[in-house]
Structures are given as C-alpha cells and as structure tokens.
Amino acid sequence: MEQLAIVLIVLIFLMGLMVPVLRPLLKNYTGRILALVPFALFGALTFLFFSLPDETARIVETGFGFLPEMQFSFRIDGLSLIFGMMVSGIGGLVLGYSSFYMAKYAGKTKFYFFLILFMGAMLGLVFADNLLALFIFWELTSITSFFLIGFDHDKDKPRQAALQALLITALGGLCLLFAVIMIGNLAGTFRLSELYSQGFHFGAHSQYQTVFLLIFVAVATKSAQFPFHFWLPGAMNAPTPISAYLHSATMVNAGIFLLLRLNPVMGGTIAWKGALILTGGITMFIGAFFSLGQKDLKRILAFTTISALGTMVMLIGMNTTASIKAALIFFIVHGLYKGGLFMVAGIIDKNTGTRDITRLSGLLKSMPVTSIAGILALLSMSGLPPMLGFIGKELIYDAKVQMPELSWLVVPLGVAANMMMVAISILVFYEIFIPRKNKPAIALLHKEKELPGNFLAGPVILALIGLGLGMAPGWLNNILSNAMFYVQSQAVDVHLTLWHGFNQVLLLSIFTVAMGTVIFILRRPVGKLVGIIIPWTDQYHLPEKFNNLISNYLSFAGKHTNRIQHGYHRYYLITFFMATLLLIVYQLLSAGGEWFHPSESSPVRMHVVLVLIISAMAVLFAVFSKSRLSAIVSMGVLGYGVAVLYMFYGAVDLAITQFLAETIIMVIFVMVIFYLPDFAVLSSKKSRIRDAIIALSVGAMMTMIVLKARFINLEEPISQFFAEKSYLEGHGRNIVNVILVDFRALDTLGEITVLALAAAGVFTLLRFNPIKKKSEK
Amino acid sequence: MELVIAIFIGLLYASGVYLLLRRSIVKLILGVFVISNATNLIIFLSGGITRSGVSFIGDEAEKATLETMTDPLPQALILTAIVIGLGIAAYILALKYKYFETTGTHDLDQLSKTDQK
C-alpha cells in the first residue's frame, strides 16, 4: 500500500506534465477526471491511516536521486499522513470545483498544469524523508504558486502579487537550503529517519542559533508570519480555486509542517520557544484584527488565514504535548473550514458577481445549500460545537492554560484573537446569509437557484467532514498519537471527545463567544476604530514598501548598468585598451631583466628592412588616406609585405597562404567598396589626438611585449618532437603540413568548420532583406 | 633584426588601434586586418628568426633537427590563423555591406540601438 501511495504521487506529477496533451481529449471534464488520481491517493492514504500501527513509520525507497546523499526516499508516518490526506483530499475537491469555476476562463491548460504540479510538489514535500528532497519540493511549491497567483498575467496587480510572493518565499527557500545543509553537516545525514532513530538534537551546539534563524525565516516567509505576512492577502488576486487550495491546507502550511518535522531535531530550546510564541502571537492577533476591517469576502478569509497560521506557529513554539496536539487538530480544522469557505466565496462570487459583504445579503433564501455549507464552516471557524473547530479551540485553550510560565501572555492574546474570529464569523453570517428588511436581497446572475451539484460538492463535503469529525473525533486518535510520537519523540495516548466536562477551558470558550457577540453588536464603533488604525498602519504599508524597494533597486541597477553599458563601441575599446595597457606595462616593468641583447639577435638584413619600411609606409598611408580605394590597396601592400617577410625567413607555406588569402580579401573588398560611402571625418580633432595617443601607447606596449617575450620561456618548446616524428609517424616531409593534417588534425577540422560557418553566414546575410520584408507586409 | 621587427609590430598595432577607434565602420574593419597581421607576426617571431631554413625533412633523412630550419610549430599556428582571418574578412565585409544597406549609415555611434530605422 505504501508503494501504491508513492506511485500515485509520482503519477500526479506525470499527470501535471501531461495536461497539455490530456486537456484537448478530456475537454470540459478535465478537472473532474483528473481529480480521480488525488482521490485514489486519498483512498490509499485512508487505508494506511487505519492500518498504520502506533509508533511506526514506513519508509519507501525509490533508489532514484541526484546525489548519493539526496535520494528521493519517502516516509509515511502519522504526520505525513495527516498532511498528505488534507493535500490530496482537498486537492481532489478543488480540481472538481475548478472544472466549473474555470469553465469560462482562458488558459485552462496552464491552470491545470501548474495546479497539479503544485499538488505533486506539496505531496512530495510532506512525504519526503530526505531533507534535500524536501527542499527541492519546497522550492517547487514556491515556483508553481508563483504561476498560480499570477494566473491573470495580463493584469498588473496579480503580476505584482505573484512576484512579491515569489521573492519572499524564495528568500525563505534559500534560508532553508542553507539550514538543511548545515543540519546535514552537523548530523552526518540528510535522512529524517536516521535523524529520528539516532535521537539527534543539536540544541546545545554553537551553530544552533544560525540554523534556527534560517529555519525561522523559511517558515515565517512561507507561512506568512509577521512581518512577512503581507504577501498573503495580495495572493488573493488568484482565481478562487487557487486561493482555496493554497491557503487552506497546502502552500502556507508548508512552514507549519517544517516546524513539526524538525521539532524532534531542534525544537524546544529557549530561542525556539521565544521566537515562535512571540511571532505566532503577534501574527495571530493582527490577522484577526485586520480581518474586521475588510469588506471583500476573500480578503477577510485571507486575514483569518494569517491569524490561524499564527496560532499554529505559536502552539508549536509552546512545545508541550497539549500544544502539539492542538496544533495538529487545528491544522485539520483550519484546512476543512477554510477550504470550504473559500469555495463558498467563489460560488457566491460566480452567482452574484460580487464579493463585497456590504452588498451581499439574504443568500440563505436564494442559495440554501451553499449557505448551509458556509454556515457550518463559519461555526467551525468560530469554534462552536458540534464542529471539529470546537474541539480544536478547546485544545488550544487547554494548551495555553497549561503553559506554565507564559499562560498570562498567551491566554489573553488567544482569547482576544478568538473573540474577533467569533465576531467576524457572526458578521459574515449576518451580512450575507440572513435575509433582512433594510438591505435588499442581492439578485442572482443565474436563473437556477443553485449552481450544478458538483460545484457544491467541495464545500458541502468539507463541511460535513468537519461536522462528522466533531461528532466522532475518536477516528483521529490513532493517527494523532502516531504523529505525536514523531513530533514529540515520545509515545502519547490521544483521546479526543467533543464534551470534556465543565471546566476552566469551557468557561473561557463561553466568555469568548459572549465577547465575540458583544464585538459584533458594537461593530460600528469597532469598525470605525479599525478604520482609523488601518490608514495609520498604511503609512507602513508593507506590500508597497516592498514594491518600492524592488523598483528602487531595479532603477539603481539600471542607472549603473547604463553607465557601463553605454552602447558606444569605441569607448568600450578605449576602456579595454587602457586597462590592458596599465596592467601589462606594470607587469612588464616590475618583471625587470633585460630587454634587448645585441649578441643574441640575428643580423640586420637590409632587404628585409626595406620591405618593412615599404609596408610601414603603406599602413600609415592607409590610416590617413581619404580615398577608400587607395586605403585598400595599401592594405594589400602590407599583406604582401608580410608575406615576403615570411618567405625571407623560410616559411614557404605561410608565404603562399598569405599571398592567396590577401588576394582574395582584396578582391572581396574591392567588390564591396563600390557600394560603400566615402570616408568622412566623423570625429573631432581633439578625439583624434586622444585616439592617437592611446594607439601609440598600445603600439609601444606591444613592442615591449615582443622584445620581452624572447627572454621568457615558460615551457620547453615541443617543436623537436614534430621534427623527429613527422616523417616516421606522419609520413610527410613538409613538417608544417604534417602538423596541420596529422598531429593537429582536429584543429584543422575546427578551422574548416569556421570557414563553413562564415560561408553560410555570408550567404544568409546577402539573402537577408529586412526592409523588403517590412514593405511586403 | 628582432628589434626592427618588434618596432614594426608596434607600429602596426598603433595604426590598427587608431583605426579601431574611428567611427567609420570601414576604417574599423581595416584596423582588424592590420591587427591580425601584426599578431601573426608576433607568433612568427616567438619561434625565433635566427635560423631561416625551410622546415622540410630532406629526401634521404628520416628525421630533421631544428638547428637549421625555422620552427615549424608557429608556422602551423599562423597558417590556421590566416585562413580563419580570411573567413572572418569575408563575413565581416558581407555584414558591413548589409549593415550599410539596411541602416544607411556607416557611423558606429548611430548603432547604439538595436532597432535601427
């Protein structure tokens, strides 16, 4: 069964890659049919869920990996099962839901492609047994979610939101990579199963603080913790199915998952507790607080998600048995109700054309099924019985009350946040579902009261699961105790019940609901207060600050790039020549030694000198000539002069080649020159003098190099080898030719290739006619 | 003699660099030719010019010594360089021809943008 589950995960990946092929075949049924695979995976996981004994984990090796230390091995234990079931189950529902929601969208192939790849990456992340593999899947979720959030890429806002999410989560990804490598180096293994079985915990190690900081940044960015929380509301620009998936059970919970995974390895230290409780607490509070001031249903949900994530981080930071248990339950609770609420929001949006809670009203009458699913989810969100949310909230309170040193801080913060959650739930319920006299019921865009049944399946199923698990939480006992064993590294017995007696915690709950109702009744003054605070915090509006930072950085970089890459060819050359000149002259002068030794040099031959003088005059004439033709002819004189020089010094082959090549170049030049303009004096006198100085210095430098080179021998010349072997092994008496066609035959092959390319280039250039093409259009 | 050739190379480089820094593209191409000739000469000189025998192995002999002949290795390198130089020359001239035909200018300063005309 484990193998089957892993095969299904791989299948999800393949399916994602196959979407461009599958979609034309499946047409409008794509979402619903593809949803079968995650459902099958969910089924397999459910089977494992009931059959997995306590305190065991199953490891599945694939034998595939990029490196010996980085094998793609998977582990199935309570923790990965809980997350995996949520990811695959909600994933399947979201795919089915998308089938309807996305029906009129363009670019559905892209949508399914990235959504399914994202699902695969998320599943890989939760089941990975190797920390490096976990990192790879982590990055994959960041990248695919970038494309999902920026789905409407032709609009400015989604693009910006996507970029923001990517930059922030990628920062966390980098931190995670460093942290993983450091953990691997400290422990000597990247495998979670070995880390767990060795009981490795490096809380006392000197590098612990660094690793913890890196992990903390990774988690805070991914799970939208303060002060990185601001990318999450922006991500609401994505189509609703994406929000429903990313923000209920997947993407943002990856950070929570990572904390739970690493808890046995590095949890429970002072730094761990302090940082997580503090950040989690702040995030929990501001998330709930800001949700009160929102009007867009999806934005309300986004802020409550931030609050929920804060709650989980805080619970994990507390690191007691009760708090870990509460975190795990709350993860399930949150996934169920948030997924459902997002889907409900999407349905309402489709059916009424708005998500503004001040405009929506009386939906209970016009859309009863949707409304009931939504109301059940709201019940769960506010933590009322008989939903699973009630158990979750009771466990959270229980954990907070039991927290020995910090209960004075965490209990009031938690109660305050929950009060606001209750208030926002009642507010949403009151505004959009209840028919009221002073607010006209909103008209539906579709004639049939409800949308197709499958569209509703998602939220209804999620609401019913939330209700069912609330009635019979005992189902979760086994898997929770298995998960707890791997998070806390000690065996824990879990017994969940809906009713656990009349105690302090229940009193707190009653107080919370009562206060929540009070806030709701006082919603006008409270709304005003939030309305005052939000503009004030807008001065420190983080998304904008972040955008400014990025755009300033870009313009700064652009300015400096333009200074260096100005586009003037000759200034590039001047820079190059000056830099080379300085470096080489410095090197030549500091090398010391002699420059010229009369006794070692060969005698001056007057006829050679004569040739050189003629060539030099030809070159100077070419430089200053105003006529194109005479400049070219004097270039020819130089070429022939050099050829004659080769001949005087016994290089017959060179001389012949030089004569031939020079002749051909002259012929081509004369052919082309006919079409080219006359020389014109383009530069000013000043710049000509500057150029002349640069040119003369470069010339002097080259003379120095040539002279100095004779006295520097780094390697023994190998020419003797060629002289000895060329007849015996190459069977040729012309040594130069044997070198070319035998000893260095590959070089010659390269040379022929260059010639062929040049010929092809010339041919293409002469046929290429951009202007003509344009006019033909 | 080395000194004379070294000065000659220096002069060629000076002329070549001066031509490279011109704005007219025809002069730039002339500069490339001059510099490639000068560079070939440097390689040639590095083999030494004290001996000037042809680098052949005599009819009867099986191997030759380097004592009388010009070093064959730099020659082989230069031979390759000359031929490649020919290829570059043909290409660069075709490019220049097309460039002038398309843009109507031979001023390199006008070439700072990619979308011309």
TrEMBL record, chain B:
Gene3D superfamilies: 1.10.287.3510. It is a multi-pass membrane protein. The chain crosses the membrane at residues 6-21, 28-49, 76-95. Its main location: membrane. It is found in: Cell membrane. The keyword Membrane applies. GO terms for cellular component: plasma membrane. Keywords: Cell membrane, Membrane, Transmembrane, Transmembrane helix. The keyword tRNA-binding does not apply. It comes from the Bacteria. Belongs to the CPA3 antiporters (TC 2.A.63) subunit C family. PANTHER family: ANTIPORTER SUBUNIT MNHC2-RELATED. This is Multisubunit sodium/proton antiporter MrpC subunit.
